[in-house]
Amino acid sequence: MSETWSPQQYDKLNEYRHRPFAELTSRLGTSNPGVVVDLGCGSGGHTLELAGRWPDARFIGVDSSAEMLEQARRNDHLGLVEWVQEDVESWDPGEAGAPVDVILANSLLQWVPSHMRLIPGWVAALAPGGWFAMQVPGNFNAPSHTLLREIAAKSPRAAELLPRLARGEAVSEPAVYLFLLAGLGCDVDAWETTYQHILDPGGDRGEMVLEWTKGTALLPVFEVLKDEAERADFVAAYGAALLRAYPRAPFGTVFALRRIFAVAHKKPAAG
Ligand SMILES: C[S@@+](CC[C@H](N)C(=O)[O-])C[C@H]1O[C@@H](n2cnc3c(N)ncnc32)[C@H](O)[C@@H]1O
């Protein structure tokens, strides 16, 4: 199942997406990695930030979306990263041609239902002393997602929409990632944080929860509803429900977003 990503829509909310990336990568205890792979690198802003942190490393950014990679290449003025269009389900760490020191998967694995089966192969491919870091949203039972499923269930296209909205089932609790990664012989730090984002404090940016979901949660809906009128009806119903669920406070719209993090450190070679 593949969604059409829009870097313009996704990047509108970068200010809120940066903090979980920064908190995740602050736990990487390496100062001079040789090879860094950013899986699901998107439009590359975070990959390039890490390239600034580790200027001597070789960087590979992997993403399945041609649109996101096109933007990533445009953002990479200095040609710091090797951008690779590939599905992470088929990505072979051997393609790097050298042991990988850091594998990052920031806000990717909620889109990859098979990820519990893929992680062991990625950890195995890490160099001794290497790092794996992942972050996924854990908000699939929040109103932003339950309302989406409720409106999809009432749609004449419900049979096509609902299976595509079951993505949350792919995301596990922090302890599940902890046990998986510790079982692979890593030292693990796993945690969760619920961010109370204050969207649009100035009150001049429109329906911001809807804008947020247009860049992510609504993508599977847009893959089904190609007809403009059909899509507009769905978005209008969903937007109205979001306004009721996330009323505007005098200081902005509060959007609570739970995120799940895990950082694994593979043991260095003995001796
Ligand atoms: C939410 S964005 C995260 C982008 C980036 N990691 C960041 O920190 O902003 C998810 C990205 O994962 C990519 N993606 C989703 N499923 C994928 C898959 N199976 N293989 C490779 N990339 C995938 C999408 O194209 C999108 O660019």
Please tally the helical runs, counting DSSP H or I stretches of 4 or more residues: 11
Give helix and strand order, one letter per element, not per position.
Answer: HHEHEHEEHEHHHEHHHEE
Structural class designation = alpha/beta
**Share of β-strand residues:** 15-25%
Helix content: 25-40%
> Which overall shape is indicated by the principal axes computed on the Cα atoms?
globular
**Unreliable stretches, pLDDT < 50, 5 or more residues?**
none
Number of strands: 8
Largest sheet, if any? 8 strands, mixed
Are any ligands bound, and if so which?
S-adenosylmethionine
Radius of gyration, Cα only, in angstroms?
19 Å
Q: Return the average pLDDT rounded to an integer.
A: 94
> Gap between N and C termini, in Å?
46 Å
Description:
The chain has 271 residues and is an alpha/beta fold. It has eleven helices and eight strands. The protein has helices at 7-11, 14-25, 45-53, 66-75, 115-125, 143-154, 158-164, 174-183, 208-214, 219-224, 228-245, and strands at residues 35-39, 58-63, 81-85, 100-106, 126-137, 186-199, 248-249, 252-266. Strands 1, 2, 3, 4, 5, 6, 7 and 8 form an eight-stranded mixed beta sheet that branches. The radius of gyration is 19 Å and the shape is globular. The N and C termini lie far apart (46 Å). Residues 5, 17, 21, 40-42, 46, 63-65, 68, 87-89, 106-108, 111-112, 216 line the site of S-adenosylmethionine. The site of S-adenosylmethionine (SAM) has 20 residues, from helix 2.
Please give the structural blueprint.
Layout: H1 7-11, H2 14-25, E1 35-39, H3 45-53, E2 58-63, H4 66-75, E3 81-85, E4 100-106, H5 115-125, E5 126-137, H6 143-154, H7 158-164, H8 174-183, E6 186-199, H9 208-214, H10 219-224, H11 228-245, E7 248-249, E8 252-266
Helix pairs in contact: 6-7, 6-11
